Amino acid sequence: MTCRLVGLVAAVHTPFDSAGDLDLSVVERQLSHLLSRGVTKVFVGGSTGESQSLTVDERLRLAERWLQVARGTEMQVVVHVGANSLPEAQAMAAQAQRLGALAVAAVAPSYFKPRSVPVLLDWCRSIAGAAPATPFYFYDIPLLTGVSLSMPDLLESVGDSIPNFAGLKFTNQDLYAYQQCLRAAGGRFDIAFGFDEMLLAALVLGAVGAVGATYNFAAPVHHRIMRAFDRGDLSAARDEQYRSVLTIRTLIRHGFAGSGKAVMEMLGVPVGPPRAPQQTLDAAEVAALRAELTNLGFFDWIASP
Amino acid sequence: MTCRLVGLVAAVHTPFDSAGDLDLSVVERQLSHLLSRGVTKVFVGGSTGESQSLTVDERLRLAERWLQVARGTEMQVVVHVGANSLPEAQAMAAQAQRLGALAVAAVAPSYFKPRSVPVLLDWCRSIAGAAPATPFYFYDIPLLTGVSLSMPDLLESVGDSIPNFAGLKFTNQDLYAYQQCLRAAGGRFDIAFGFDEMLLAALVLGAVGAVGATYNFAAPVHHRIMRAFDRGDLSAARDEQYRSVLTIRTLIRHGFAGSGKAVMEMLGVPVGPPRAPQQTLDAAEVAALRAELTNLGFFDWIASP
Amino acid sequence: MTCRLVGLVAAVHTPFDSAGDLDLSVVERQLSHLLSRGVTKVFVGGSTGESQSLTVDERLRLAERWLQVARGTEMQVVVHVGANSLPEAQAMAAQAQRLGALAVAAVAPSYFKPRSVPVLLDWCRSIAGAAPATPFYFYDIPLLTGVSLSMPDLLESVGDSIPNFAGLKFTNQDLYAYQQCLRAAGGRFDIAFGFDEMLLAALVLGAVGAVGATYNFAAPVHHRIMRAFDRGDLSAARDEQYRSVLTIRTLIRHGFAGSGKAVMEMLGVPVGPPRAPQQTLDAAEVAALRAELTNLGFFDWIASP
Amino acid sequence: MTCRLVGLVAAVHTPFDSAGDLDLSVVERQLSHLLSRGVTKVFVGGSTGESQSLTVDERLRLAERWLQVARGTEMQVVVHVGANSLPEAQAMAAQAQRLGALAVAAVAPSYFKPRSVPVLLDWCRSIAGAAPATPFYFYDIPLLTGVSLSMPDLLESVGDSIPNFAGLKFTNQDLYAYQQCLRAAGGRFDIAFGFDEMLLAALVLGAVGAVGATYNFAAPVHHRIMRAFDRGDLSAARDEQYRSVLTIRTLIRHGFAGSGKAVMEMLGVPVGPPRAPQQTLDAAEVAALRAELTNLGFFDWIASP
């Protein structure tokens, strides 16, 4: 079973209406926005997608909509199914396979934390087994889950025990581990990189794909990083990467989750505000954010491919 | 609105059958077991109850069953409704009120973490507002949630903004904060203590109630702590507390969650094994655990009131 | 070898003059201040004493002065010799023994951290061996050292390997571990408690002594806790403990190290400001601190024994 | 004042004899070993140099010897002077300047930790002021110090307040911060990178120099990374970087500090074992390490430039 998350994968936002309810009517707009910018893969219901803040029913409907809307287009859909409750994760994985997802992915349970690689591997096996014909990615994001286990060890221990284990979404600054993951088990796994602001560093070490929030609105910047890297123009790649850094620094200053969704609104994709406990920007904050981004040159950076 | 979680509140286990499915038929046995040992309050679907490992539907059915079974008995039921998804927490709170729970309680969301007391207070308000006629407890357990905010500050900031805010389940070793919580806002809040192995320390500082896992099977030990404390026999209280320490140390050595449920089985209350990612003891481990507990004197300690 | 740090042990401040140099002329005043308040043991060059901010030469001179000044008085002197450099710690331990210290104590090295109990035990052995006729205490303070190893395991593993191992200074909120330490190895060790604001909780679990910063200026409050506890008046003990909490909360608000030294100045013991990186209060901050403490009643609390 | 730590800077080991005492006679051998491998800068008394385990007198003698031995050679010497005690750090800085060090560097104090950038900046100013004619580097290594403050913020706040502030030794996986540091204050600072196993990632983001332990024995591998990078052969650079990863993984498995010193012995530079609390490899462990490194190809990797 081969799956390569090559190129940029947008970790899409989950759209809410003004009452805070799921607004699936926006999904088409998200999809066309991304396709028009050359992004042909999405990661649905991940951290950017606030999956942990959704009900399971909302997550199922969200994935269903994305898979429906993507059908017949160039867009491929990875569905994040991670949850603290195993039966919930399994139900979402089964649905994703039924509806033709490119892959499923899952974070570690984070309230009761796996304390060892074998326990985590068992967890992965249980979810992957619910969608056995679909590639499975473990999504490592210790900063949010509090689960910090060795990914090289996990990959080396997969063996034949999970035939559809395809790789990792690696949202971890540890590029020492990253290099080991890329070469683990003979290099058979796909290790999508998860820190947009460090993409170039991952590329030079061998990354071929990345999943991130800013690929929703700053794909042109990151596409230019990849193209410059491919043609060996590292100076240009570095400058573009620094634009990514400046953009993200600005968003973080205003609250990353709320800012990211506000930027989508600025670009005509009304994904609404985040749900609690993440914070919404009020009108004044949105205006300040827009001014700072304008001043930075952000809107020019993303205007051209 | 007054609610005092006076005395021992058992954080009950969630019963599973051998297939790992919810087995609500055991709830009656749990209830009669506890009543026969003088425990008249339960905390349903908390950390001991593996709520994060359950589906929401399972949590709703579990709470419903407890509230049904308890009706007409001396048993009072606190329902834990904390979840990463606010609508899910609200739905469980509303159900708990509808079915007559003594109180609801909620942990902080732990994937997307509130970063300040005001954000956490908003979160509490949203849940408490879904069960406005029912006392609300915030359940502080930083070790599991990774949310470590000042509880005295939280209590001082409640004011009139959440009329049904009743207090805390305080599962935190910080007895400096605990003392401040007991006296916050003129002492109007109820601060149930959550570390069974330190109960006596909390009592001497003013605790009147406690919620814990070991009150399912070691209530006699802890009742003796409370009675000895009340009559001023601190030496006896201390010796009983040390029995609690020894018991818990033994359980931790074998994996606390699995061991606790195994002990319930030994006492004739077949709550089954824990669900993944928590680990189940195999037969040999159960035998070793039983031998160690026997050797310790545990079964004698809990034989008399 | 028996040593019991019974009662309150003041972790004394290190006096500096206005140029920031060691001012040993103040030591006599510190000693008489403490004796007049019934404190007959000091812990010299600990965390309160800013040992890590001193040069080794300053530490040696400081210990020497305390041991000289205490000679012929009721005061007994424990010397803290912990350091990242083992030869430095050993030199200080040897000096302490030579000059007749009651005991030596040492924190774990904290830059290169012992990763296991056996490594920590070796470390303790190397220091204790440099003062073999003097009781040795390990000083557990994970919050500052970042070394968080099991103290019960450490004590159980001492055996005969360190004949002068006397116990712990336990500056740790984990009262579960504390109880185990008190009873470890048949209860042969002395476990002085290190959180002034939780003293009563330690007493009820069996503590007989405590080492702390506030015993320099708030010994009367804590002596009343101990006396009330001894006569079984837990309500009075609890009220006094809360005074301790309020005092410490006020000091923390202004920076604990600087505030504590400022309070000594207010009491006529001019220990000067702390050394960098700890912060000094300016005149306005000192005035505000004094006003808050006055308002609290602090100066009344410490006026009577 | 300009200083650029361009190229590889070896963080040299501190040589001990079999009794565990400083053995300065080995320094010449270290120096000639490095020069023969094209390494012309050393970082003396850093973490690899076990500075925190040395006495201050040992640190002074060590720096003195390096500065003597290097005189008249191509070797340039950076002296690490960081310490928990400010006067000790200042004394070492003054000596380094007096004896002609290329630069001084200092870690943050780690027992009493600076809690904000301004406090850390004050700390840096106090040390840099003791060697005002010598470039000063702050050495950021949060994993060991527990001090995790924003380096971009630190650099932006230097301004004119520390004229000899030259930059950072950045031993931190956060390449988002690294990029900001490289461009902070108009790019006026030198940001030497401190994770050998991620060198290529730093290079692609703009690093021009690096300080590390493995440059003592694996400089050829890392020189090939830099040369391959410079000529645009990223595939070769990546393969060499992976050799670095494999080497470090092997060393870590046997205890990094002890293994690194054992490898020096294998190469004919008898730096002896590390001092406690770091662990020494016994003969069997050394043999196993040598066998693993041989099997890996390590000795071939470092045989050619």
Please describe the structure with a list of short key phrases separated by commas or semicolons.
8-stranded parallel sheet, alpha/beta, homotetramer
Oligomer: homotetramer
Mean pLDDT figure of chain A: 97
- The count of helical stretches of chain A stands at 13
**How would you spell out the order of helices and strands of chain A?**
EHEHEHEHEHHEHEHEHHHHH
Largest sheet of chain A: 8 strands, parallel
Largest interface: A-B, 34 and 34 residues
Order of strands in the sheet with the most strands of chain A? 7-6-5-4-3-2-1-8
Regions of chain A with pLDDT < 50 over 5+ consecutive residues? none
Helix proportion range of chain A: 40-55%
What do these coordinates show?
Four copies of one chain form a homotetramer. Chain A has a domain at 7-219: TIM Barrel, CATH 3.20.20.70. Chain A starts with 6 loop residues before the first strand and ends with a helix. Chain A is built from 13 helices and eight strands. Chain A has an eight-stranded parallel β-sheet. The model of chain A has no long low-confidence stretch (mean pLDDT 97). In chain A, helix 7 (175-183) links the parallel strand 6 (165-170) and strand 7. The first copy, chain A, has 305 residues and is of the alpha/beta class. The longest helix of chain A is centred in the last third of the chain and has 20 residues, at 234-253. Chain A has helices spanning 27-36, 56-70, 86-98, 117-128, 142-145, 151-158, 175-183, 199-205, 219-230, 234-253, 256-266, 283-296, 298-301; strands spanning 7-11, 41-44, 76-80, 103-107, 136-140, 165-170, 190-193, 209-212. Chains in contact: A-B, A-D, B-C, C-D. The A-B interface holds A 47, 50, 52-56, 58, 84-88, 108-114, 119-120, 122-123, 126, 144-146, 257, 275-279 and B 47, 50, 52-56, 58, 84-88, 108-114, 119-120, 122-123, 126, 144-146, 257, 275-279.
